[in-house]
Amino acid sequence: xxxxxxAACGAYAPERVVxxxxxxxxxxxxxxxxxxxxxxxxxxxWCAADESTADLAEKAALQTLDRAGVTASELDLIIISTDTxxxxxxxxxxVVQHRIGANRAGTFDINTACAxxxxxxxxxxxxxxxxxxxxxxxxxxAYAMSKYLNMEDKKTVxxxxxxxxxxxxxATEQEGLGFLSSELITxxxxxxxxxxxxxxxxxxxxxxxxxxxxxxxxxxxxxxxxLNPQIWSxxxxxxxxRTTTSVEKVDQFFxxxxxxxxxxxxxxxxxxxxERAHTIMHHYGYTGSACIPMAFNDAWEKELVxxxxxxxxxxxxxxxxxxxxxxxx
Length: 329
Fold this sequence. Notes:
Radius of gyration: 19 Å
Oligomer: single chain
């Protein structure tokens, strides 16, 4: 059966490093201690003033193509997952397509917030499985949330960061290799709890909204802390059932990197060693739809994943949206 396999990966983070002490000075309180002791974040990367989502995505894309030995003109499709797009319209994917010279590739963006990369991975794999004309599909998760942060809000400004990660999906006929299963879940009742609510048709940006910081990222209500571990572990068990594989056989889990304690709790619920979930938030902060491919790329570079490994991707984000996917590398 024709299937989609992960042929290569890449990532990029801006050069500007923002340490925790920056926020101690900015906010006038000690936030470093809490960040380091509770969420294990020590620093993060933010875009330069003239750097944007398309810049991050472009660099991750070029690294991925170089590693795959594939030219941009060989791409059939580019899907970018982001909720910090280059423009409201047109798509960020069209910008990146032009920049890298992928003149044959179709493009579109998706927005399922921080679940977006795994959702895009699911879509790209199914394009390849369903249509023989798609052989090379580039999936990018990109995030420039520093552009939307309220510098006076310690709930958000200390956590969120910028970056991009990508994978190249390729068609394969090799049995037992590539995409195995996936699942999407949405808890739409939480759609007003966290997000960027200004700038769309519901609340066009105006001066009054800017004065109240309502055009920037907002945590409106605190989510139940058990929500992510419960749904992540549920989705992981479902992937195991659908692939008739025990959870213990999974070599690495790549899970949304917003809270290391939620990741650890998930693995504890599954009775899986914590080291099987590779994490990068310690030095990159929370990079939203980019965090999972950035973590995968970091694990690949450190040889923590290899050909033949079974990996699960599990993402969640505002909406609330959840996505999972299983791949045999």
